[in-house]
Amino acid sequence: MFANTLAEATQPYSAFMRKETLLTKKHTPDENSHTSHLTKFKNKRLAITSELGKNDQLDESIIKKMSGNDAIQTRGCYSDNEDNYTANFVTVAISNYIEPFHNLFNSEAFMDRLKIIEFPVKFRGTHKDDKNIRVRLHAEHQGICCQIVKWCKRFHEEGGILRIPDSIIENTKNILGPQKCDRDYIDDFIQEKVKIHDRETCIKPNAIFWAYNHFMEKNQFESVLTRKKFMEIFPVQLEKIHKIKINPEEPDRVTLSDGTKPRVFKRIFIEGYSIINSKEDNIPKQQELTLS
């Protein structure tokens, strides 16, 4: 009801968005597939979607495009003509669950943009069902629009700076606070287990990933990270915590999201594990791990 009222009251500046638009696809779309479902959001200021399920998973790439002023490419059905536009709309997603957002907790850019507005009030069982509530809310559309215009005027009077209320910022932190993301677990692993020394030793990424999984299992944490995703996050957090500058131009150092496979880390020691030497790949003083 909230989504319907908001969309109807803000016409023609808003549009409904199918939740499938925001979700990860089970199959990779064909490059020639039409994207007409994105065409209707051109020149809109508000996109509204609802009913995100507990097991739904948001698509990070499309979320970033819609919230980062990136160009969105669209093509209509049975058309060869492509159109590009910049997303100027705010996306409002209505859900009873926080789980659909879990896979984006590792994205600092997304977390900076995410604002959670909680509606703790429950109506079911407290009042008799109003069969005419939609009709009565329709009569309030003009008042809703007037309130939005009032806020818009205030926005421009204050210099065009959108100030998020402290209550919403605090509420977002409170809701997300207990939710540990993959980045947080990797930080714990680095701070507790990863030590830096000056010896000319190397350790393979596979060994570090193995140690991380053992750390998670030992602490009874649930880990669903793939090796690829782990290697995207680990070097960045390692630099932040230990202030080690990882140079992607050096062939024997781990690379940062440039498409190449990392080979070894230098000067890293994993506390609580024994070292076994390996001559694989002819890398001198290469090291792998085993349990102490």
Automatic annotation (TrEMBL):
Q: Which domain of life is it from?
A: Bacteria
Q: Which GO terms describe its molecular function?
A: hydrolase activity
| InterPro entries referenced in this protein's UniProt entry, alphabetically | ORF904-like_C (IPR051620)
Asked whether the UniProt record includes Hydrolase among its keywords, one would answer yes
Keyword annotations for this protein, in alphabetical order, are: Hydrolase
Alphabetical list of PANTHER family matching this protein:
ATP BINDING PROTEIN-RELATED, SF3 HELICASE DOMAIN-CONTAINING PROTEIN
The identity of this protein, by name, is Uncharacterized protein
Which organism does this sequence originate in?
A: Desulfamplus magnetovallimortis
